[in-house]
Amino acid sequence: MDFEFDEDQRLLQEMVRETVAKSRSQPGERLWATYRELGWLEAPPVELAIVLEELGHAADPTPFLATTTWFAPLAGRLPEGAGTGVFDGAGRFVLDADRADEIALLTEDGVRVVKGPAVEGSDVAAERQVVFDPGLHVAHVDAAATGAAPLVKDVPDMALMGLAISTVGSCRRILDLTLAHVKQREQFGVPIGSFQAVKHKAADMHVAIERARVLAYFSALTIAEDDPRRRRAALMAKAAAGECQRTVFQNGYQLFGAMGYTWENELQYHLKRAKAGDLLLGSAAEHRRALLAS
Q1: Do 161 and 141 fall into the same domain?
Q2: Shared domain check, 84 and 176
Q3: Using an 8 Å Cβ cutoff, are 205 and 179 in contact?
Q4: Which of 86, 95, 115, 149 matches a 20 to 30 Å C-alpha distance to 251?
Q5: Domain of 245, in residue numbers
């Protein structure tokens, strides 16, 4: 496996960063249309991970993550509009289920695709849940109402990888904001970033991010090559991302001081998104246990 980006992948990374930076103030509907026009939804696993990392960095409000990594792996195709998948065996806290055009259900009889609540004549009921991240769409899905066979649990590797790399993107943004703050905030006449204790916490954040980032891209590589290690790689990526957000969350909040607790500060958006990335589809502890059992 080649663990370095090739020239095309580096160009994609730069293009995604520039596009997201220019358009991040646009409404979600326009962002979604832009992503579709640029063909990002059709990207293969590694290139998709590049896109997802940058969207995670920007706390993307669109259903891109659910469409590409929750719906597509189950249905074997992209949806007509936005999509998501139910593969936890219960239909609880399904990403973007309340605004999906199509929902793929993993049942005892196989995968069944039904109309989502975003289209007329929906086949399924999806009730959005109030969570700590107001920008995050998650819903409970009542699959029984569709007449489908009972749901079964089998989380796709792509879904775990997608959440992992998106969480890494969120953590990168938290570190960026924290570094900018400690360089400007002064105490005793000098920037607090010059204090050794602050440097150590920032270094811990960087190391945690790089570890989780490498494992997430390794997972994408194993998926792209259909490597037999893909399941373990996906579990490792999701566990590492959860551990990463814990370190970044704690240190980012502490280094921002009281400012980190205010709703006016951008930091809170990315802290919430990183925390949600850990909790969706199981926390780091759950995936560590799965690794030991595999």
Answers
A1: no
A2: no
A3: no
A4: 95
A5: 157-293
